[in-house]
Design a protein that fits this description.
The chain has 171 residues and is α/β, with parallel strands linked by helices. It contains four helices and ten strands. The strands form three sheets. A five-stranded mixed β-sheet has the order 3-4-10-9-8, with no helix packed on it. A three-stranded parallel β-sheet has the order 5-6-7, with helices on one face. Strand 9 and strand 10 form a beta hairpin. The chain is elongated and about 70 Å long.
Length: 171
């Protein structure tokens, strides 16, 4: 069956797919100095922006048990606030500019060119949502990859704390 991401109230998400065999014990717990247990992984990737998902999937496809930690949303700044939204708005502005200059090219438009900003924003939101949905589907379908939602904080050289959880990996 296809793995699904399950959002839990404690902001931890984990895939329901079985993970492949890896160098570490699958689901193994190690004790921290204060007695808390740490979940062992082969690698921990922090951030689901431009590079994080690709690195995490590549490691998981290589047979490693991987945790991908994300604080807010898939895609990072580029997909959600920067590159993608800006490019869709610029494309709409360019289309309006070309339409206004259509007569210079022998193309006649019956009436004034107007811009519907509600429609422009809806298009931008749709493009962003499609990018996030594609990324979510891709991460969902990657065996050996667990997405952990929350703020990552290093507590030791190979340990990361995310909410109440402690994750440990050599990479």
């Amino acid at each position: 069956s296809t793995p699904r991401l399950e959002r839990r109230p404690d902001m931890t998400t984990k895939t329901t797919a079985k993970t492949p065999k890896s160098n570490s014990k699958s689901g193994a717990k190690a004790r921290t100095k204060d007695g808390a247990s740490a979940t062992k992984y082969d690698a921990i990737v922090i951030g689901a922006g431009q590079a994080g998902p690709y690195l995490a999937v590549r490691l998981a496809q290589a047979g490693l048990k991987v945790a991908l930690v994300e604080r807010e949303h898939f895609g990072g700044t580029c997909v959600n606030d920067g590159c993608i939204p800006t490019k869709t708005l610029v494309a709409s502005a360019r289309a309006a500019h070309v339409a206004r200059r259509a007569a210079d090219y022998g193309v006649l438009i019956g009436g004034e060119v107007r811009v519907d900003m509600t429609a422009v924003k809806a298009r931008k939101d749709g493009v962003v949502a499609q990018s996030i949905d594609s990324l979510t589907t891709w991460l969902n379908g990657t065996p050996g990859l667990e997405v952990v939602w929350g703020h990552a904080r290093f507590v030791a050289a190979h340990r990361v704390e995310v909410g109440e959880r402690v994750l440990e990996a050599p990479r």
